[in-house]
Amino acid sequence: MRPGRIHRIAMFVLPPALLAACAVTRTEPPPPVAAPAQFKETGLWQRATGAATAVPDAWWQLFADPVLDDLQRQLVIGNENLRFAVAQVAAARAQLAASRARLAPTLGGSVSATRSGGTSSSSEVQRGASNNIALSASASWEIDLWGRLAQATSAAQASYQASADDLAAARLSAQATLAQTYLALRTAEAQQALIERSVAAFQRSLELTQARYQSGVAARSDVLQAETQLKSAQAQGIEAATQRAQAEHAIAVLLGKPPSALAIARTDALPAAPLVPELLPATLLERRPDIAAAERRVAAAYAQIGVADTAFFPALTLSANAGYRATSFADLFSAPSLFWSVGPALAQTLVDGGARRAASEQARADADQATSSYRQTVLVALQEVEDNLVLADRLRAEAALQQEALDSARRNLEITLEQYRAGTVSFLDVAVAQTAALSSERSLLELRNRELAAINQLLKNIAGRWQTG
């Protein structure tokens, strides 16, 4: 067959064959998990329309607390977990750059100069010393026939994006943890202030009871009851102060500081709870960085399947070498000293004991694991939103009822105190009324704390604000 005909046949046959090989080594990942038509707890969940919005940086401002705003600014700078995640992103970026570099040709050069001599083994005659000077350059380029390098780059790109999403998820988690710890600190402060007021009231009751006992109006048991109530309240105050101190220490560690380096002024008040809207569009769930990271890992795992499958095909490399070699610098760049070589190399593993097949199967198993992990992440995200939606709604209603119970307990305490001063009831009735009022107010504070925590978690679940704008 004539060479020209062979060339024409190769021009028509080789490109389709290469494209077919690329198609064989590429495995498409499954489509992303679609959001449900609606949330069970709201009935207003809508499908997303348009691109997802980036995670907002200041979602905690919904709590309208300037101290929390300042702590959040310090968090991004000092948190050690965030610094670790930043380093992971930098490592993934470097790996991506290295993967892209493999697509380009490599060029190298070398210069050497040696002087050698010795004795002939047959005649034991001393030979004169000789020089050997060489100057050379080499180039090589692996032709990506089957898409191995391109798919490795795609996998590195997906892994890099997953690392960036992990950083966003870590930042969001740290912000939510800081907000939750701060709310717990303010709750402990409010409990502490409540107990301090109760201790003052119990102290007045004890003094009143002691005066009545000394006058012979009250029994000794009334004094003991008043003392017991006072000491119990003081013990509860110590517990509330301990909880506040521990929350402050936890905030310091979140900020990357020793506990001794942070002091938060007391306010004895909880932030107002933001109102949860009735309508939450599906774009909010799509903004979650942990879901985006899991989806990118699926893409990276499926790209690795293609990389593993290309091992069944030969690798084609183009290489070239050129340079000069002589015994002296004067003759180095002369024509007789020139040497060069150029040509392709085709390499293929023939027998490997099943290693390539095992690598391909492992890549597919890794892809199945990544897919299952991604789907589970989506399901957990849906559950978290559902849980905190219903929790925030129920806790708001429960807090309203508890407020009514507190109002009744306070009114009952006022009436009982008047009756005790009039001598119509014993101090036991006063103690019961005071304990009921204290318990009702502490329960209300706890419910408000849980409501704020549920809203904080809901904001984390939907990756920030619930407004789409």
Number of helices: 9
Instruction: Please estimate the helix content.
Output: 55-70%
CATH architecture of the domain at 21-104 and 145-288 and 370-461: Up-down Bundle
CATH topology of the domain at 21-104 and 145-288 and 370-461: Outer membrane efflux proteins (OEP)
Strand order of the largest sheet: 1-2-3-4
Structure characterization notes:
The protein has a domain at about 20-105 and about 145-290 and about 370-460: Up-down Bundle (Outer membrane efflux proteins (OEP)), CATH 1.20.1600.10. Mean pLDDT is about 80; it is low at about 1-25 and about 40-55. It has a 4-stranded antiparallel sheet with strand order 1-2-3-4, with no helix packed on it. Helix 7 (about 290-310) runs antiparallel to helix 8 and helix 8 runs antiparallel to helix 9. It is elongated. It contains 9 helices and 4 strands. It has about 475 residues and is α+β, with helices and mostly antiparallel strands. The longest helix has about 70 residues, at about 355-420.
Jot down its keywords.
single chain; 469 residues; Outer membrane efflux proteins (OEP); four-stranded antiparallel β-sheet; 9 helices; 61% helix; elongated; disordered N terminus
